[in-house]
Hints:
434 Repressor (Amino-terminal Domain), Arc Repressor Mutant, subunit A, six-stranded mixed sheet, three-stranded mixed sheet, 49% helix, globular
Amino acid sequence: MNNKRLNQRIIFGLKVKQLRLERGLSFSDLAAKTGMSISYLNEIEKGKKFPKADKIQVLAEVLDEEYSNLVSMDVSGTFAPVVELLKSNFLNELPLDLFGIELSKVVEIIANAPVRVGAFISTLVEISRNYALGEESFYFGAMRAYMELHYNYFEDIEVAADRFIEEYNIPKGGVVSTAVLEKILKNKYKYEIVENGLRDYPEMSKLRSVFVEKEHKLLLNESITDIQRAFQYGKELAFNYLDLKDRSATSSLLKIKSFDQVLSHFNAAYFSVAILISRNEFIEDVKLFFQKEKWDGEALLSLMRKYNASAEMLFNRLTNVLPRTFGIRKMFFMRVFHDTAQNKFQMDKELHLDRQHQPHSNGLFEKYCRRWLSLSLLKDLYDIQKGGKYVGTIVGAQRSKYFGTDDEYFALTLARPGNPGSDINVSVTIGILIDEELSEKIRFLKDHSISQRLVNNTCQRCPIKDCEERAAPAIIVEKREQRRKMQEALQKIIGNKK
C-alpha cells in the first residue's frame, strides 16, 4: 500500500467529516446535495475511498470549501496530532502485522474518532517528551512485546540453527571454538577479520565490532573477549545464513532506522546463542540441574563454562527453553548495572513472560528495593572487590515474597564484574513465579539453604517498616496516606453538613 496515497485518503476523509459536521449536515443531507450514495460518503470519511477530481469539486462546493484546501495535506486544530503521526514514517514502521493488526483497522479507528484519537496521540507524545523517549523506545518496546507474545521462543530460528550446526559440523553440548566460526565467515562468506580494527577510533571503544559492507571487513575491538567474539561471529553468520538484509554496521544499534532493523538484530542474536548453546543438549543439562536435591550454584556456573557462555547468554537461553519444554511460563528476566563509584543501580533490560511481573523498571529515578537478589548479590560482589580480591561471576538463589501480594518468585542471579577498568558491575536474574507445580519441576526449590526475603519494587513505594536496606524514604506511601486522611476528613465535612 502506498503510504502517501493512504495518508491522503485519511486526511481528505477527516476534512470532509469535519466540514460536514461544522455545516450541520447528516450523511443523508450530504448525499442529497452531492448525488453520492451514503455508503460511498461513509467510505470517503473513513479513508477507504478517494474520489476523482469532479466529485471532489462537487464536495468542495457543497461544503463551501476551496478545492485546494480540501485536497491539501495541511490541517490544523484537533486533527493536527493525527496528521503529524500520519506524515511521519512511524505508523508505517510499527510491526502491526506481527501482532495480527491490520493497518486499515487502525486507520478506521482514527477516522471514526479523530478528536479523541488526536487527544490520545497528543498525550502519548507529551509523555514521551517528558521521559525523553524517542522512536527507538517504541521500537524496542514493540520488540520486547513481540518476544513476550511468543514466550521468547522462535521455532523457525531454532530449526535454522539446528540445520546450520549439522551443515558445518558445529560441536554440540560444549564449547564452540571461535576459530571454527571464523573459518566459516572467511571461507563461505568471504569476510576479512581485522584484529584491533577499531584501535584508531577511540570514540568506538564501547563497540565490539563494526562491519564495513563495501569491503566485507569485520573490524574487532582490541578488548573483545573470547565469549564476545564467538557471539559476534554468530551474529555475522546469522545475517548471512538467514539472509537478514536490514542491519546496522555496528555490533549494537546506535541509530535505529526501522523496526525491521531491530528485528534483524534480535534474530541474529537469537541465532548466535542457539548455535553456541545447542537446544537439545542444553535442555538435558537443565533437566539434570533441576533434578538436584539441593541448591548447587556451582552447577549453574559449570554450565557457563561448559558452553563458554556469558551469564546473559546462559539466562537468555533459559528463557527460550523453560516455557516451551518445561512448561514454566510465568517468569521474568532482568539485567541490572551497578555503578560502584556512585553506588547507583539501573535496570536496562527486562522481559516478562505470561504477564507483567514484579519487579520491573522504573523511569522515575526511584531507588530499587535493595532486598532483590539482583542488587544484594551486586553488593556482595563489590564488597569482595573492595577487599582486594579478584572475583569472576558469582551466583545466588532466593525466594522473594512480594509485600502485600500472594506472589513469591524463585530468583536465580548471576553477578559479574564489568569491563576491565570500569566501575560497573552487572547482574542478570531469572525469576519464576512459584506455584504448586514448580517444586515438582525444580526439586531443590524447597532446600532450606535458599534464603527467603520479603521484597518490594522501590523504596519510595514500600511500606515495610524497620527495613535496614532502605535507600530512600517511603514518600509515595506517605503521600497516599495523606490523601487517605484528606478523603476521610472530607467525608466528615460532607457528613456534618448533612
